[in-house]
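Shift notes (night). Ran Xylose isomerase-like TIM barrel domain-containing protein while the centrifuge was going.
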Amino acid sequence: MTNTRAATAATPTAEAGESPAGPVGLDLVACHHTLSGVGVAEPARFSFADRVAVASAAGFGGIGLTWLDYEHLLARGHSPAGLRTLADDSGVRVVEVEFLNAWWADGERRAEAERHERLVLDMAAAFGARHVGVGASVSPEAAPPHDLLVERFAALCDRAADHGLLVGLEFMPFFVLSDARRAWRVVADAGRPNGGVTVDAFHVGRGTTDLVMLGEIPAERIVALQLCDVAADPAWPVLEETLGHRLWPGQGALDLAGLVDCLLRPGAAFPVEVEVLNAAYREDSLPVNAHRAARCARSVLAEAAGRGAGG
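Came back to this:
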């Protein structure tokens, strides 16, 4: 899904009063890691109050939150009701709660997964979240058989449904559900109406998923689209790149407008999210990163809308 556009575009800044609404009528969402200021295994560097306020100022309608950060906030004395009030007062909704990795596991890992799930479901209830992000972070060699993945995913969807949640299963090229077709097969075989697929542009661009595969997934079963970009010639292994070297949408080699255009079919109702994990960007201020994220995503959506109008 690459194109030949050079990654030299100037970084835009948000304009006051602009609203980066998604192309399907849902607000743009800043994923947790886009605003955290830290790596994936740490609680956010910025306060929750600052994150929701800055996200709102940048024009985001929603944000994401991890169970790790939620646990840290509670340990520091915040209450679920108090956190919800901060979000509500800013006009920003916690749309996405994440990330559940071992819902398929047994033994000690299962016990840990159940604790994480309880945190995620509690967080979802506190904030009125829309969906939970999940993945199967296990190699093909160590993964359980397909039928067990289906059984465990169906059970997870049932538990999430009790909280009014959608479940977005994310495919990743370095794990067992390596492409959109494999992820959709689990979702389809599970047969749960609240189950669907989350599409992360990084995993499309660095994997084997193509637009044909994505077109096989019913539009209404796309839970979320996560935007980022990648360098034309990466200097890192793919796992290292995804965790620390993603680029702002439109700043790299991916045809993101084409991806958006592919997914915007009748029945689509997904939020458009920005998920950029970049070690260098973490050195910048929270407002700088929030405004860049919103404006870059808005530019991609405008390009996609232009293509649709022209074709």
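The longest helix spans residues 286-310. The chain has twelve helices and eight strands.
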